[in-house]
Amino acid sequence: MVRETAVSVDDLVLPLFVCPGTGVENPVASMPGVFQHSVDRVTTAAAAAHDLGIPAVLLFGIPEHKDPTGTEAWDEDGVVQRAVRSIKENVPGLLVITDVCLCEYTDHGHCGVIRDEAVLNDPTCELLAREAVSHARAGADIVAPSDMMDGRVAAIRDALDDNGFADLAILSYAAKFCSAFYGPFRDAAESTPQFGDRSTYQMDPANADEAIREVALDIEEGADMVMVKPALPYLDLIRRVKDEFSCPVAAYQVSGEYSMIKAAAASGWLDERRTMLETLTSIKRAGADIIITYYALDFASGV
Ligand code: PBG
To answer: Which pTM value belongs to this model?
Structure first.
């Protein structure tokens, strides 16, 4: 009766990785329980999530070919676009969110186009807008830009409006830190930068006021929901964003947060279920309305 915070399956979003082929279910070595799925298999996985009451999935694509500008990102026949169509057709009650970024699609692994080893902000925004429109055409319910270019939310909002998707929502990765906790994800998405790091566009973990400025800008540009990422090391910012803005706040319990618990549990050092529940409860208590987590299936199935 006096417990203040309860995590519910309704709060959760399950990330899924889509790869080429059929019948593919490729385990990600650094993320036990996570797979790269081909379109047919990702549809089955999405249906299983829906059956467990998980309201939404977040799709990432591993393309057939990577190139300097990430052209497969906006290919109408790309893996994510095909997966969105298939999930919307076969699991109509499930909300489909797509990650909008170039790092999974570029051969250098950076989140934008490159000149002299530097990411070009404005040309990248144009490509991200194209990618978002192609996800919208495929039937995505929400697009989620994760690139951290300046002005990309405005570019995406304009492009969506111009193409007849004025009602499509944007969940922006607004306060996304340059984090070591993304390591396992980069195995899953095969998106490790080939040179340098993402510190010229992702945020310095030491900066909290700057995170608030990033969130304010994204909301001004048209974001409907904002995200803080990673989650557990940034609970202070989840709370500040929740208190200072009146839009829904998402928190991403990222790959490293997940794999850390998995690894410790596999060694017998932590009780996995208790640790999972404690971290998710803390993220919710900090103020998250939506929690994106690789633990969504385990949580929902009571494992
Ligand atoms: C793409 C993107 C990343 C994550 C989500 N979208 C990787 C990165 O920025 O390097 C990380 C998610 C995770 O670690 O689970 N830009």
So the answer is: 0.97
- pLDDT tens figures, 285-294: 999 999 999 9
Ligand 1 site, CB within 6 A: 99, 101, 103, 111, 146-147, 182, 185-186, 198, 254-255
- Encode pLDDT of 130-164 as tens digits: 999 999 999 999 999 999 999 999 999 999 999 99
Ligand 1: centre distance to CA 33 (Å): 18
Distance 18 CA to ligand 1 centre (A): 14
Buried b (16+ CB within 10 A) or exposed e, 203-230: bebeeeeebbebbebbbebbbbbbbbbb
Q: Which CATH number fits domain 9-301: 3.60.15.10, 3.20.20.70, 3.50.50.60, 2.40.10.340?
A: 3.20.20.70
Q: Report the nearest atom of ligand 1 relative to the CA of 176.
A: 9
